[in-house]
DNA sequence: AAGTGGTCTAGACCACCAC
DNA sequence: TGGTGGTCTAGACCACTTC
Protein backbone atom coordinates (compact mmCIF):
# COMPACT_ATOMS: atom_id res chain seq x y z
CA UNK A 1 0.00 0.00 0.00
CA UNK A 2 1.45 3.31 -1.04
CA UNK A 3 0.43 6.93 -0.97
CA UNK A 4 2.23 7.73 -4.28
CA UNK A 5 2.96 11.16 -5.62
CA UNK A 6 -0.49 12.27 -6.69
CA UNK A 7 -1.62 15.83 -6.08
CA UNK A 8 -4.81 15.21 -4.11
CA UNK A 9 -7.57 13.55 -6.13
CA UNK A 10 -9.77 12.03 -3.41
CA UNK A 11 -6.84 11.68 -1.07
CA UNK A 12 -7.37 9.15 1.66
CA UNK A 13 -4.96 8.72 4.53
CA UNK A 14 -3.23 5.35 4.70
CA UNK A 15 -4.71 4.58 8.12
CA UNK A 16 -8.22 4.97 6.70
CA UNK A 17 -7.40 2.61 3.87
CA UNK A 18 -6.01 0.17 6.41
CA UNK A 19 -9.16 0.52 8.48
CA UNK A 20 -11.37 -0.16 5.48
CA UNK A 21 -9.33 -3.19 4.50
CA UNK A 22 -9.70 -4.61 7.99
CA UNK A 23 -13.46 -4.00 7.94
CA UNK A 24 -13.67 -5.69 4.55
CA UNK A 25 -12.01 -8.78 5.91
CA UNK A 26 -14.28 -8.86 8.93
CA UNK A 27 -17.37 -8.40 6.75
CA UNK A 28 -16.03 -11.05 4.37
CA UNK A 29 -15.68 -13.53 7.19
CA UNK A 30 -11.90 -13.77 7.05
CA UNK A 31 -11.74 -12.72 10.68
CA UNK A 32 -14.85 -13.77 12.58
CA UNK A 33 -16.34 -12.29 15.75
CA UNK A 34 -14.30 -13.34 18.75
CA UNK A 35 -11.24 -14.26 16.73
CA UNK A 36 -7.86 -12.65 17.11
CA UNK A 37 -6.38 -10.44 14.40
CA UNK A 38 -2.73 -10.59 13.35
CA UNK A 39 -0.45 -8.47 15.50
CA UNK A 40 0.30 -4.87 14.62
CA UNK A 41 3.64 -5.77 13.11
CA UNK A 42 2.19 -8.65 11.10
CA UNK A 43 -0.54 -6.41 9.71
CA UNK A 44 2.03 -3.73 8.97
CA UNK A 45 4.12 -6.21 6.98
CA UNK A 46 1.07 -7.59 5.17
CA UNK A 47 -0.03 -4.13 4.08
CA UNK A 48 3.37 -2.52 3.62
CA UNK A 49 2.78 0.29 6.06
CA UNK A 50 4.41 1.10 9.36
CA UNK A 51 3.25 -0.31 12.65
CA UNK A 52 2.21 3.17 13.79
CA UNK A 53 -0.23 3.46 10.89
CA UNK A 54 -1.79 0.09 11.70
CA UNK A 55 -2.04 1.16 15.33
CA UNK A 56 -3.95 4.29 14.37
CA UNK A 57 -6.39 2.27 12.27
CA UNK A 58 -6.90 -0.28 15.04
CA UNK A 59 -7.41 2.43 17.63
CA UNK A 60 -10.20 4.05 15.65
CA UNK A 61 -11.77 0.62 15.13
CA UNK A 62 -11.56 0.14 18.90
CA UNK A 63 -13.38 3.42 19.52
CA UNK A 64 -16.10 2.29 17.13
CA UNK A 65 -16.46 -1.02 18.97
CA UNK A 66 -15.52 -3.02 15.90
CA UNK A 67 -12.59 -4.64 17.68
CA UNK A 68 -11.30 -4.69 21.23
CA UNK A 69 -7.72 -4.95 22.39
CA UNK A 70 -6.11 -6.59 25.38
CA UNK A 71 -2.58 -5.68 26.28
CA UNK A 72 -0.26 -8.63 26.14
CA UNK A 73 -2.86 -10.75 24.35
CA UNK A 74 -4.01 -9.31 21.05
CA UNK A 75 -6.73 -7.56 19.06
CA UNK A 76 -10.08 -9.31 18.68
CA UNK A 77 -13.19 -8.84 16.56
CA UNK A 78 -16.04 -7.68 18.80
CA UNK A 79 -18.97 -9.97 19.52
CA UNK A 80 -22.49 -8.93 20.39
CA UNK A 81 -22.53 -11.44 23.20
CA UNK A 82 -20.39 -9.18 25.35
CA UNK A 83 -22.34 -7.54 28.14
CA UNK A 84 -21.16 -4.11 27.11
CA UNK A 85 -22.24 -4.63 23.51
CA UNK A 86 -25.68 -5.92 24.53
CA UNK A 87 -26.40 -2.87 26.64
CA UNK A 88 -24.82 -0.59 24.06
CA UNK A 89 -27.86 -1.12 21.87
CA UNK A 90 -30.41 -1.68 24.62
CA UNK A 91 -30.97 1.69 26.22
CA UNK A 92 -33.92 1.04 28.50
CA UNK A 93 -33.03 1.07 32.17
CA UNK A 94 -34.87 0.64 35.43
CA UNK A 95 -35.58 3.94 37.14
CA UNK A 96 -33.62 3.47 40.31
CA UNK A 97 -31.93 0.10 40.54
CA UNK A 98 -28.88 -0.63 38.48
CA UNK A 99 -29.23 -2.03 35.00
CA UNK A 100 -31.66 -4.89 35.21
CA UNK A 101 -31.26 -8.42 34.03
CA UNK A 102 -31.29 -8.78 30.30
CA UNK A 103 -34.87 -9.10 29.12
CA UNK A 104 -36.31 -12.28 27.71
CA UNK A 105 -38.94 -12.23 24.97
CA UNK A 106 -42.26 -13.85 24.07
CA UNK A 107 -42.87 -14.12 20.35
CA UNK A 108 -46.37 -13.06 19.33
CA UNK A 109 -46.01 -13.42 15.61
CA UNK A 110 -43.42 -14.05 12.91
CA UNK A 111 -44.24 -13.73 9.23
CA UNK A 112 -43.01 -12.70 5.84
CA UNK A 113 -44.91 -9.89 4.19
CA UNK A 114 -44.73 -7.00 1.77
CA UNK A 115 -43.03 -3.88 3.06
CA UNK A 116 -45.46 -1.20 4.19
CA UNK A 117 -44.57 2.26 2.85
CA UNK A 118 -43.21 3.38 6.22
CA UNK A 119 -40.96 0.33 6.42
CA UNK A 120 -39.87 0.52 2.79
CA UNK A 121 -38.92 4.14 3.28
CA UNK A 122 -36.92 3.46 6.43
CA UNK A 123 -35.03 0.53 4.94
CA UNK A 124 -34.75 1.97 1.45
CA UNK A 125 -36.63 -0.94 -0.10
CA UNK A 126 -38.66 -1.16 -3.30
CA UNK A 127 -42.40 -1.35 -2.80
CA UNK A 128 -42.52 -4.99 -3.85
CA UNK A 129 -39.69 -6.14 -1.59
CA UNK A 130 -40.47 -8.60 1.15
CA UNK A 131 -39.70 -8.13 4.80
CA UNK A 132 -39.77 -10.46 7.76
CA UNK A 133 -41.81 -9.07 10.62
CA UNK A 134 -41.24 -10.23 14.16
CA UNK A 135 -43.72 -9.17 16.80
CA UNK A 136 -42.70 -9.88 20.37
CA UNK A 137 -42.95 -8.71 23.96
CA UNK A 138 -39.93 -8.10 26.13
CA UNK A 139 -40.14 -9.30 29.68
CA UNK A 140 -37.96 -7.86 32.41
CA UNK A 141 -38.03 -9.34 35.89
CA UNK A 142 -41.27 -11.08 35.00
CA UNK A 143 -43.01 -7.93 33.75
CA UNK A 144 -44.03 -7.55 30.12
CA UNK A 145 -42.94 -3.98 29.53
CA UNK A 146 -41.88 -3.49 25.91
CA UNK A 147 -43.69 -4.47 22.75
CA UNK A 148 -41.48 -4.73 19.68
CA UNK A 149 -42.17 -4.88 15.96
CA UNK A 150 -39.01 -5.77 14.08
CA UNK A 151 -38.74 -5.58 10.28
CA UNK A 152 -35.89 -7.27 8.43
CA UNK A 153 -35.27 -7.27 4.67
CA UNK A 154 -36.00 -10.76 3.43
CA UNK A 155 -33.10 -10.78 0.99
CA UNK A 156 -30.61 -10.25 3.78
CA UNK A 157 -32.11 -12.66 6.30
CA UNK A 158 -33.24 -15.53 4.07
CA UNK A 159 -35.00 -18.20 6.06
CA UNK A 160 -35.04 -16.53 9.42
CA UNK A 161 -38.84 -16.68 9.43
CA UNK A 162 -38.64 -20.48 9.38
CA UNK A 163 -36.48 -20.70 12.48
CA UNK A 164 -38.02 -22.85 15.15
CA UNK A 165 -36.69 -20.98 18.15
CA UNK A 166 -35.45 -17.43 17.86
CA UNK A 167 -33.17 -16.34 20.67
CA UNK A 168 -34.04 -13.12 22.45
CA UNK A 169 -30.58 -11.64 21.85
CA UNK A 170 -31.21 -10.88 18.20
CA UNK A 171 -28.09 -8.88 17.35
CA UNK A 172 -25.94 -11.75 18.47
CA UNK A 173 -28.12 -14.07 16.39
CA UNK A 174 -27.77 -11.88 13.27
CA UNK A 175 -24.03 -11.97 13.75
CA UNK A 176 -23.69 -15.70 14.32
CA UNK A 177 -26.18 -16.87 11.72
CA UNK A 178 -25.93 -14.32 8.92
CA UNK A 179 -22.59 -12.65 9.62
CA UNK A 180 -24.48 -9.37 9.88
CA UNK A 181 -23.02 -7.16 12.58
CA UNK A 182 -25.19 -4.27 13.72
CA UNK A 183 -22.81 -1.35 13.88
CA UNK A 184 -24.89 1.74 14.53
CA UNK A 185 -28.48 2.84 14.89
CA UNK A 186 -30.64 5.93 14.93
CA UNK A 187 -33.47 6.00 17.46
CA UNK A 188 -36.35 8.44 17.12
CA UNK A 189 -38.29 8.72 20.34
CA UNK A 190 -41.86 9.91 20.69
CA UNK A 191 -44.67 9.55 23.20
CA UNK A 192 -47.99 7.88 22.48
CA UNK A 193 -51.03 6.44 24.25
CA UNK A 194 -51.47 2.72 24.65
CA UNK A 195 -54.00 1.21 22.27
CA UNK A 196 -55.97 -1.99 22.74
CA UNK A 197 -53.15 -4.19 21.51
CA UNK A 198 -50.57 -2.50 23.74
CA UNK A 199 -52.92 -2.82 26.68
CA UNK A 200 -53.47 -6.52 26.16
CA UNK A 201 -49.83 -7.42 25.58
CA UNK A 202 -48.31 -5.19 28.25
CA UNK A 203 -51.04 -5.92 30.76
CA UNK A 204 -51.99 -2.28 31.22
CA UNK A 205 -55.02 -0.15 30.48
CA UNK A 206 -55.79 1.69 27.28
CA UNK A 207 -54.73 5.35 27.21
CA UNK A 208 -51.57 4.99 29.29
CA UNK A 209 -48.48 6.96 28.18
CA UNK A 210 -45.96 4.93 26.22
CA UNK A 211 -42.49 5.60 24.91
CA UNK A 212 -42.21 4.72 21.25
CA UNK A 213 -38.72 4.20 19.88
CA UNK A 214 -38.34 3.84 16.12
CA UNK A 215 -34.94 2.46 15.19
CA UNK A 216 -33.09 2.18 11.91
CA UNK A 217 -30.00 0.02 12.29
CA UNK A 218 -27.04 -0.23 9.96
CA UNK A 219 -24.57 -3.08 9.56
CA UNK A 220 -20.78 -2.89 9.49
CA UNK A 221 -20.81 -2.72 5.70
CA UNK A 222 -23.30 0.16 5.70
CA UNK A 223 -26.42 -1.77 4.70
CA UNK A 224 -29.75 -0.86 6.32
CA UNK A 225 -30.68 -4.14 7.94
CA UNK A 226 -33.30 -3.52 10.63
CA UNK A 227 -36.22 -1.25 11.29
CA UNK A 228 -37.96 -1.63 14.61
CA UNK A 229 -40.66 -0.04 16.69
CA UNK A 230 -40.47 -0.48 20.45
CA UNK A 231 -43.40 0.62 22.58
CA UNK A 232 -42.50 0.72 26.24
CA UNK A 233 -44.53 1.33 29.34
CA UNK A 234 -42.33 3.74 31.23
CA UNK A 235 -43.74 3.18 34.69
CA UNK A 236 -40.62 1.23 35.61
CA UNK A 237 -38.37 2.02 32.65
CA UNK A 238 -36.73 4.99 31.07
CA UNK A 239 -34.59 5.43 28.00
CA UNK A 240 -31.15 6.73 28.91
CA UNK A 241 -28.89 8.86 26.73
CA UNK A 242 -25.40 9.95 27.64
CA UNK A 243 -24.38 13.06 25.71
CA UNK A 244 -20.64 13.53 25.68
CA UNK B 1 6.83 17.04 33.11
CA UNK B 2 8.44 13.67 33.56
CA UNK B 3 7.35 10.09 33.89
CA UNK B 4 10.20 9.22 36.34
CA UNK B 5 11.28 5.75 37.35
CA UNK B 6 8.43 4.75 39.63
CA UNK B 7 7.04 1.21 39.54
CA UNK B 8 3.37 1.94 38.85
CA UNK B 9 1.62 3.70 41.74
CA UNK B 10 -1.35 5.35 40.06
CA UNK B 11 0.48 5.59 36.78
CA UNK B 12 -0.97 8.16 34.43
CA UNK B 13 0.19 8.53 30.85
CA UNK B 14 1.86 11.81 30.02
CA UNK B 15 -0.76 12.67 27.42
CA UNK B 16 -3.49 12.42 30.04
CA UNK B 17 -1.58 14.72 32.33
CA UNK B 18 -1.15 17.13 29.44
CA UNK B 19 -4.86 16.92 28.71
CA UNK B 20 -5.74 17.67 32.32
CA UNK B 21 -3.37 20.61 32.42
CA UNK B 22 -4.97 22.08 29.32
CA UNK B 23 -8.46 21.62 30.78
CA UNK B 24 -7.30 23.28 34.00
CA UNK B 25 -6.16 26.31 32.07
CA UNK B 26 -9.40 26.50 30.14
CA UNK B 27 -11.45 26.16 33.32
CA UNK B 28 -9.20 28.73 35.00
CA UNK B 29 -9.87 31.21 32.23
CA UNK B 30 -6.30 31.30 30.94
CA UNK B 31 -7.56 30.27 27.51
CA UNK B 32 -11.13 31.45 26.93
CA UNK B 33 -13.76 30.04 24.57
CA UNK B 34 -12.96 31.02 21.02
CA UNK B 35 -9.35 31.81 21.73
CA UNK B 36 -6.39 30.09 20.12
CA UNK B 37 -4.08 27.80 22.07
CA UNK B 38 -0.32 27.79 21.67
CA UNK B 39 0.91 25.59 18.86
CA UNK B 40 1.80 21.97 19.42
CA UNK B 41 5.50 22.74 19.56
CA UNK B 42 5.03 25.66 21.93
CA UNK B 43 2.92 23.51 24.27
CA UNK B 44 5.49 20.72 24.03
CA UNK B 45 8.26 23.10 25.06
CA UNK B 46 6.17 24.60 27.87
CA UNK B 47 5.42 21.17 29.31
CA UNK B 48 8.68 19.43 28.49
CA UNK B 49 7.11 16.67 26.47
CA UNK B 50 7.36 15.78 22.82
CA UNK B 51 5.11 17.27 20.18
CA UNK B 52 3.57 13.84 19.56
CA UNK B 53 2.40 13.62 23.15
CA UNK B 54 0.78 17.06 22.96
CA UNK B 55 -0.87 16.03 19.71
CA UNK B 56 -2.40 12.97 21.33
CA UNK B 57 -3.80 15.08 24.18
CA UNK B 58 -5.20 17.67 21.77
CA UNK B 59 -6.76 14.99 19.60
CA UNK B 60 -8.66 13.47 22.49
CA UNK B 61 -9.79 16.96 23.52
CA UNK B 62 -10.98 17.45 19.96
CA UNK B 63 -13.03 14.26 20.09
CA UNK B 64 -14.60 15.46 23.31
CA UNK B 65 -15.51 18.80 21.72
CA UNK B 66 -13.41 20.75 24.19
CA UNK B 67 -11.29 22.26 21.42
CA UNK B 68 -11.44 22.28 17.65
CA UNK B 69 -8.54 22.41 15.22
CA UNK B 70 -8.10 23.99 11.83
CA UNK B 71 -5.20 22.94 9.71
CA UNK B 72 -2.89 25.80 8.93
CA UNK B 73 -4.54 28.01 11.55
CA UNK B 74 -4.43 26.60 15.05
CA UNK B 75 -6.26 24.95 17.93
CA UNK B 76 -9.17 26.84 19.52
CA UNK B 77 -11.27 26.47 22.66
CA UNK B 78 -14.81 25.43 21.68
CA UNK B 79 -17.70 27.84 22.10
CA UNK B 80 -21.33 26.92 22.65
CA UNK B 81 -22.37 29.46 20.05
CA UNK B 82 -21.28 27.13 17.27
CA UNK B 83 -24.23 25.60 15.46
CA UNK B 84 -22.90 22.12 15.99
CA UNK B 85 -22.49 22.65 19.71
CA UNK B 86 -26.00 24.08 20.07
CA UNK B 87 -27.58 21.07 18.43
CA UNK B 88 -25.23 18.72 20.22
CA UNK B 89 -27.16 19.33 23.42
CA UNK B 90 -30.57 19.99 21.85
CA UNK B 91 -31.81 16.65 20.61
CA UNK B 92 -35.38 17.43 19.63
CA UNK B 93 -36.00 17.39 15.90
CA UNK B 94 -38.94 17.91 13.61
CA UNK B 95 -40.38 14.65 12.33
CA UNK B 96 -39.80 15.06 8.64
CA UNK B 97 -38.19 18.37 7.75
CA UNK B 98 -34.56 18.93 8.49
CA UNK B 99 -33.51 20.34 11.83
CA UNK B 100 -35.72 23.31 12.55
CA UNK B 101 -34.73 26.82 13.44
CA UNK B 102 -33.31 27.14 16.90
CA UNK B 103 -36.14 27.58 19.36
CA UNK B 104 -36.82 30.80 21.20
CA UNK B 105 -38.19 30.83 24.72
CA UNK B 106 -40.86 32.56 26.83
CA UNK B 107 -39.96 32.83 30.49
CA UNK B 108 -42.84 31.88 32.76
CA UNK B 109 -41.08 32.22 36.07
CA UNK B 110 -37.62 32.72 37.56
CA UNK B 111 -36.98 32.43 41.26
CA UNK B 112 -34.56 31.33 43.93
CA UNK B 113 -35.79 28.58 46.21
CA UNK B 114 -34.77 25.67 48.41
CA UNK B 115 -33.82 22.51 46.59
CA UNK B 116 -36.59 19.91 46.50
CA UNK B 117 -35.37 16.41 47.41
CA UNK B 118 -35.48 15.28 43.79
CA UNK B 119 -33.35 18.23 42.72
CA UNK B 120 -30.96 17.99 45.65
CA UNK B 121 -30.40 14.33 44.85
CA UNK B 122 -29.74 14.96 41.18
CA UNK B 123 -27.33 17.83 41.80
CA UNK B 124 -25.78 16.34 44.94
CA UNK B 125 -26.81 19.32 47.06
CA UNK B 126 -27.44 19.59 50.79
CA UNK B 127 -31.09 19.92 51.77
CA UNK B 128 -30.66 23.56 52.78
CA UNK B 129 -28.88 24.61 49.58
CA UNK B 130 -30.57 27.13 47.33
CA UNK B 131 -31.28 26.64 43.66
CA UNK B 132 -32.39 28.99 40.94
CA UNK B 133 -35.43 27.69 39.10
CA UNK B 134 -36.23 28.84 35.60
CA UNK B 135 -39.57 27.90 34.12
CA UNK B 136 -39.96 28.59 30.43
CA UNK B 137 -41.64 27.44 27.23
CA UNK B 138 -39.70 26.75 24.08
CA UNK B 139 -41.23 27.99 20.86
CA UNK B 140 -40.32 26.47 17.52
CA UNK B 141 -41.67 27.98 14.32
CA UNK B 142 -44.25 29.83 16.37
CA UNK B 143 -45.48 26.74 18.23
CA UNK B 144 -45.04 26.35 21.98
CA UNK B 145 -43.94 22.74 22.15
CA UNK B 146 -41.57 22.20 25.06
CA UNK B 147 -42.00 23.23 28.67
CA UNK B 148 -38.76 23.39 30.64
CA UNK B 149 -37.97 23.53 34.34
CA UNK B 150 -34.30 24.30 34.85
CA UNK B 151 -32.60 24.08 38.24
CA UNK B 152 -29.19 25.66 38.86
CA UNK B 153 -27.18 25.62 42.10
CA UNK B 154 -27.25 29.14 43.48
CA UNK B 155 -23.62 29.05 44.63
CA UNK B 156 -22.43 28.44 41.07
CA UNK B 157 -24.71 30.91 39.33
CA UNK B 158 -24.77 33.81 41.80
CA UNK B 159 -27.07 36.55 40.62
CA UNK B 160 -28.46 34.90 37.54
CA UNK B 161 -31.97 35.18 38.98
CA UNK B 162 -31.63 38.97 38.93
CA UNK B 163 -30.82 39.13 35.24
CA UNK B 164 -33.19 41.37 33.35
CA UNK B 165 -33.20 39.47 30.08
CA UNK B 166 -32.06 35.87 29.89
CA UNK B 167 -31.05 34.73 26.43
CA UNK B 168 -32.66 31.54 25.15
CA UNK B 169 -29.29 29.93 24.38
CA UNK B 170 -28.50 29.16 28.00
CA UNK B 171 -25.36 27.06 27.60
CA UNK B 172 -23.70 29.87 25.73
CA UNK B 173 -24.84 32.24 28.46
CA UNK B 174 -23.40 30.02 31.22
CA UNK B 175 -20.13 29.98 29.34
CA UNK B 176 -19.91 33.71 28.68
CA UNK B 177 -21.16 34.95 32.02
CA UNK B 178 -19.95 32.37 34.53
CA UNK B 179 -17.20 30.59 32.61
CA UNK B 180 -19.15 27.38 33.12
CA UNK B 181 -18.91 25.13 30.09
CA UNK B 182 -21.46 22.34 29.89
CA UNK B 183 -19.42 19.33 28.87
CA UNK B 184 -21.69 16.32 29.08
CA UNK B 185 -25.18 15.35 30.13
CA UNK B 186 -27.31 12.33 30.93
CA UNK B 187 -30.89 12.38 29.70
CA UNK B 188 -33.51 10.04 31.14
CA UNK B 189 -36.54 9.85 28.91
CA UNK B 190 -40.01 8.78 29.97
CA UNK B 191 -43.56 9.24 28.73
CA UNK B 192 -46.29 11.03 30.67
CA UNK B 193 -49.72 12.57 30.19
CA UNK B 194 -50.15 16.32 29.97
CA UNK B 195 -51.52 17.90 33.13
CA UNK B 196 -53.41 21.19 33.44
CA UNK B 197 -50.23 23.29 33.46
CA UNK B 198 -48.79 21.51 30.42
CA UNK B 199 -52.07 21.94 28.61
CA UNK B 200 -52.25 25.64 29.28
CA UNK B 201 -48.65 26.41 28.39
CA UNK B 202 -48.35 24.15 25.36
CA UNK B 203 -51.81 24.98 24.10
CA UNK B 204 -52.98 21.37 24.07
CA UNK B 205 -55.57 19.35 25.94
CA UNK B 206 -55.12 17.51 29.20
CA UNK B 207 -54.24 13.82 28.87
CA UNK B 208 -52.12 14.08 25.74
CA UNK B 209 -48.92 12.00 25.59
CA UNK B 210 -45.75 13.93 26.40
CA UNK B 211 -42.07 13.12 26.29
CA UNK B 212 -40.38 13.97 29.55
CA UNK B 213 -36.61 14.36 29.47
CA UNK B 214 -34.79 14.69 32.80
CA UNK B 215 -31.26 15.95 32.33
CA UNK B 216 -28.28 16.14 34.64
CA UNK B 217 -25.50 18.20 33.08
CA UNK B 218 -21.86 18.33 34.09
CA UNK B 219 -19.33 21.09 33.50
CA UNK B 220 -15.82 20.77 32.11
CA UNK B 221 -14.40 20.56 35.63
CA UNK B 222 -16.79 17.78 36.60
CA UNK B 223 -19.22 19.82 38.72
CA UNK B 224 -22.94 19.03 38.49
CA UNK B 225 -24.32 22.36 37.33
CA UNK B 226 -27.78 21.85 35.86
CA UNK B 227 -30.81 19.69 36.40
CA UNK B 228 -33.67 20.15 34.00
CA UNK B 229 -37.03 18.66 33.13
CA UNK B 230 -38.29 19.11 29.58
CA UNK B 231 -41.84 18.13 28.75
CA UNK B 232 -42.43 18.02 25.03
CA UNK B 233 -45.52 17.51 22.98
CA UNK B 234 -44.30 15.05 20.37
CA UNK B 235 -46.91 15.66 17.73
CA UNK B 236 -44.33 17.52 15.67
CA UNK B 237 -41.14 16.64 17.54
CA UNK B 238 -39.13 13.60 18.39
CA UNK B 239 -35.98 13.06 20.40
CA UNK B 240 -33.20 11.65 18.25
CA UNK B 241 -30.34 9.42 19.39
CA UNK B 242 -27.51 8.21 17.22
CA UNK B 243 -25.95 5.06 18.65
CA UNK B 244 -22.51 4.46 17.22
C1' DA C 1 7.46 32.55 2.83
C1' DA C 2 6.36 31.24 7.37
C1' DG C 3 3.62 28.82 10.53
C1' DT C 4 0.03 25.65 11.59
C1' DG C 5 -2.01 21.07 11.96
C1' DG C 6 -2.10 16.20 9.35
C1' DT C 7 0.27 12.05 7.96
C1' DC C 8 3.76 8.59 8.14
C1' DT C 9 7.74 6.41 9.70
C1' DA C 10 11.31 4.31 12.90
C1' DG C 11 12.75 2.99 17.12
C1' DA C 12 13.05 2.65 22.20
C1' DC C 13 11.13 1.18 26.34
C1' DC C 14 7.34 -0.43 29.38
C1' DA C 15 3.31 -3.27 31.18
C1' DC C 16 0.80 -7.22 30.71
C1' DC C 17 -0.13 -12.01 29.64
C1' DA C 18 0.63 -16.81 28.38
C1' DC C 19 3.43 -20.65 28.44
C1' DT D 1 10.85 -16.08 28.14
C1' DG D 2 8.69 -14.29 24.17
C1' DG D 3 5.01 -11.85 22.16
C1' DT D 4 1.40 -8.53 22.59
C1' DG D 5 -0.39 -3.91 23.00
C1' DG D 6 0.71 0.94 25.42
C1' DT D 7 3.59 4.99 25.77
C1' DC D 8 6.90 8.30 24.29
C1' DT D 9 10.09 10.34 21.33
C1' DA D 10 12.28 12.32 17.04
C1' DG D 11 12.08 13.61 12.57
C1' DA D 12 10.48 13.91 7.75
C1' DC D 13 7.23 15.48 4.64
C1' DC D 14 2.62 17.24 3.20
C1' DA D 15 -1.60 20.32 3.07
C1' DC D 16 -3.61 24.36 4.36
C1' DT D 17 -3.97 29.24 5.80
C1' DT D 18 -2.31 33.72 6.30
C1' DC D 19 0.52 37.49 5.18
UniProtKB/TrEMBL annotation, chains A, B:
Pfam families: GntR, UTRA. Keywords: DNA-binding, Transcription, Transcription regulation. The keyword Acetylation does not apply. InterPro entries: Bact_HTH_transcr_reg, Chorismate_lyase_/UTRA_dom_sf, Tscrpt_reg_HTH_GntR, UTRA, WH-like_DNA-bd_sf, WH_DNA-bd_sf. Residues 12-80 form the HTH gntR-type domain. Gene3D superfamilies: Chorismate lyase-like, Winged helix-like DNA-binding domain superfamily/Winged helix DNA-binding domain. This is GntR family transcriptional regulator. CDD domains: WHTH_GntR. SUPFAM superfamilies: Chorismate lyase-like, Winged helix' DNA-binding domain. SMART domains: HTH_GNTR, UTRA. The keyword Transcription regulation applies. PROSITE patterns: HTH_GNTR (PS50949).
